[in-house]
Design goal:
By secondary structure, this protein is α/β, with parallel strands linked by helices. Helices cover about 30% and strands about 20% of the residues. The longest helix is centred in the middle third of the chain and has 17 residues.
């Protein structure tokens, strides 16, 4: 019997002159000491816990959720002297979980010129792109290279990539390297190509393309997929102190979006070492999960280890495979051709594979044999076929192991593939921000209306009972979780059209995809994803309940405060926000 019920019985008994003895109400005990306990009240609490669908208060102690439920009961459990804080009707939710992104890359991108189009950046045409680069070069005269992040040919007025001549006009002396918004392509000026050792005689690497000018020989400056390895080998890197401070600093941005767990989804060994150093120094306060990228033909060494426990808020969660490229960059691997192929490609062009079947099979078998989680980038349906053809039989071979493999992006998954995903208990993590950022481009230039309307098929996945997740893939787009929910629920494009209205996520399914389902993807459902007693006090306070507002106005909801392990790590209006 609850304390409030007992009190009501006592009041009723007193009205009839009846005195209840201790034996009627059960043994009494002194109220616990509430020192160090915080109780949040006067909130619209969204627990995401089906066993506790409604609550009036939440108590936090020692970084965990102590109690959830009616106000009087929670206060009793919190103890005498607990701090009581009113949220004034704001919404309280579990902290948001980033199910795929590039945390360490975010730090690197933040140090480059911002070439993204609105609303993420300022660049709308080639002239603006060139001016942003000149301004960055003037502000960083000591930099040996001029670097920029996030140009988007689909949204530039010229509808093309910047090429060697465009960038030579900015500087013909310093190397200029620009990363495409997808991180699957890059553009170089002439000094950059020279520094990378790329000449007309350089052959395309397996799984990559060096785009050429009209003569078919001279590099245009645009590099695709595996051709970026030239960049990784030669481009100068920031010194260690800059890398580590950048990683520590970028946490503030994630916290401002209500995120309490983040991912580095294609980590190089150096990035893992950097993250370990930041963690060892005590400078991580968000939980960071890294997945090391293993390229085509690689093997998983015996010294590679993973963990489901954090050390200083960091752990290595598994391995990452990149099976194809980017649909907006037109390198994703489809079963049907692109509507408008890239320059130099024929009408039958449908993208290409990055890994051989033999390499995928070897890496998956090595990982599954050791219980290592595999996350595999597969945008195009042909790349998804490659993964399913190899992974599904392997999952059956290791049926006794809880593997939870993830298809990252899974954008053009077909209905038959979703059915196979459901049967094999594979988790698709949809890049659900795409309908807004590139929906018009996908419809008109990449896939055509029918295929584009079925990208990120969240409703179809929900109908099959698939515990899907969704993500922003930062820094491809900013890690704005509220906008991600808005796109998932509305599927509105930049032009205001609706792309595949039948594949909209319900508000609760969209929220589960970044809370409860997200925790499951990470094997952390016992610790995160809902406001439940015993779980970590990873929480976000929002200006309104995303389950109650009109989905069309969801993007107006604001993050008010973020808690990690019961500690406030972000509050709107502080620190210049």
């Amino acid at each position: 019997m609850s304390v409030s019920a007992v009190n009501r019985i006592r009041v009723a008994a007193a009205a009839f002159g009846i005195s209840l003895t201790a034996s009627c109400s059960g043994p009494t005990s002194p109220q616990p000491d509430g020192t160090g306990t915080l109780v949040l009240v006067d909130a619209d609490i969204v627990t995401m816990d089906d066993a506790i669908p409604a609550a009036e208060a939440v108590a936090i102690r020692d970084g965990r959720i102590l109690a959830v439920g009616p106000r009087e009961e929670v206060l009793l459990q919190a103890g005498k002297g607990a701090e009581l804080r009113s949220l004034g009707g704001a919404a309280l939710l579990p902290g948001f979980i980033d199910t795929h992104g590039h945390f360490a890359m975010m730090a690197q991108a933040a140090a480059m010129a911002n070439l993204q189009p609105p609303p993420a950046g300022p660049v709308r045409d080639m002239t603006e792109l060139q001016q942003v680069l000149r301004d960055w070069a003037d502000a960083h005269p000591e930099a040996p290279w001029i670097t920029g992040w996030g140009y988007d040919d689909s949204l530039l007025a010229e509808q093309r990539h910047p090429v060697r001549g465009d960038l030579d006009a900015v500087s013909s002396e310093k190397p200029i390297l620009l990363m495409h918004t997808s991180a699957h392509l890059a553009s170089c000026n002439t000094p950059c190509l020279a520094a990378l050792g790329i000449t007309p005689e350089t052959q395309d690497p397996p799984g990559g393309v060096i785009r050429r000018e009209a003569d078919g020989k001279t590099p245009s400056g645009v590099l695709e997929e595996a051709a970026l390895y030239f960049v990784f080998q030669k481009m100068p890197q920031p010194v260690e102190s800059q890398r580590l401070s950048g990683i520590a600093e970028v946490q503030k941005l994630y916290a401002s979006y209500g995120i309490t767990t983040v991912q580095e989804g294609a980590a190089r060994p150096q990035q893992i070492e950097d993250l370990r150093k930041v963690a060892a120094a005590g400078d991580l306060y968000l939980d960071v999960v890294a997945y090391q990228h293993f390229s085509n033909g690689a093997s998983i060494g015996e010294d590679f280890t993973t963990s489901k426990s954090y050390d200083g808020h960091f752990r290595v969660g598994g391995i990452k495979l990149v099976l194809d490229g980017s649909p907006q960059g037109k390198t994703a691997w489809f079963t049907r051709p692109y509507v408008v192929p890239p320059p130099g490609q024929g009408s039958d062009y449908s993208g290409y594979a990055i890994y051989s079947d033999e390499s995928v099979a070897s890496l998956i078998d090595q990982a599954f044999a050791r219980g290592i989680q595999v996350i595999a980038h597969a945008n195009g349906d042909r790349a998804i076929d490659q993964f399913l053809d190899i992974a599904v039989p392997a999952i059956a071979d290791y049926a006794e192991v809880d593997l939870r493999p993830v298809i990252i992006h899974a954008q053009t998954a077909r209905q038959d593939q979703l059915e196979e995903v459901a049967a094999a208990r594979i988790i698709p993590s949809f890049f659900a921000a795409h309908p807004f950022f590139w929906g018009d481009w996908h419809r008109d230039s990449v896939m055509g209306p029918d295929r584009a309307s079925f990208i990120s098929p969240m409703a179809a996945a929900a109908d099959l009972g698939i515990p899907y997740t969704i993500h922003n893939d930062a820094p491809v787009v900013p890690p704005d979780m509220i906008r991600l929910l808005w796109v998932a629920e509305n599927r509105e494009t930049r032009s205001g059209a609706v792309l595949g209205p039948d594949q909209r996520a319900t508000p609760r399914d969209a929220l589960k995809a970044i809370t409860a389902n997200a925790a499951y993807q990470y094997f952390e459902e016992g610790q995160k994803g809902s406001i439940s007693p015993g779980k970590l006090a990873d929480l976000v306070i929002l200006s309104a309940n995303p389950l109650s507002v009109d989905p069309a106005s969801l993007r107006d909801v604001r993050v008010v405060e973020t808690f990690k392990d019961g500690i406030s790590i972000y509050r709107a209006g502080e620190g210049g926000e």
